[in-house]
Design brief:
three-stranded antiparallel β-sheet
Length: 199
Amino acid sequence: MSHLVVRITSTVVSMMLVAALAACHTGTRSSSDSTVTSEKFPGPWGPQMQEMIDDFSSEFASQAFADGIVSEQELTEAKKIDQECYSAAGLNASWDIYGRVTIGGANMTSNEPPSAKCSFADGGVMVMYYQMLLNPRNEDEVELRAACLVKAGIAKAGYTGADLLRDYEARSVPWKPDDEKARNCVDDPLGIVNSKTTQ
């Protein structure tokens, strides 16, 4: 049995995010759909909150989502729930400023890693907190990234989300792997988290 060390780097996660967004972008949701609210949970992220409840039933999450936002206190409680799950599975976990988790310390004995369950032990409250933090109005994330790349001078004027998806699929994105500005555009296209860390 091998020692599990899961480390999600910024570059890998950035590409995973673009890939995931590519799948979403080809669906029926348009940027204007972000203003549609859930019948149960208010705000632009209401439908996604409902999806979390449907997929990961949790009384804690239902209460946290009731007002359409996730507070700092609720984030702390959610992190404690997830941490306790990891600890019970013999894992230790820490999170970066974007909510990405680093896990270590367990031997894998099943096809489903304990980390898969523990990531949503809180009902998805942590996930929603960071999604809402990075994109408060639930706008089209691919378009936000493309606009950021243009603003940063990495892509030419007129570069769109469709262009970004095309370049990703062709493995010819207009930046080098170590380009910090590009990485910031993928991680935090509105500059919300980065602005807080530099204050």
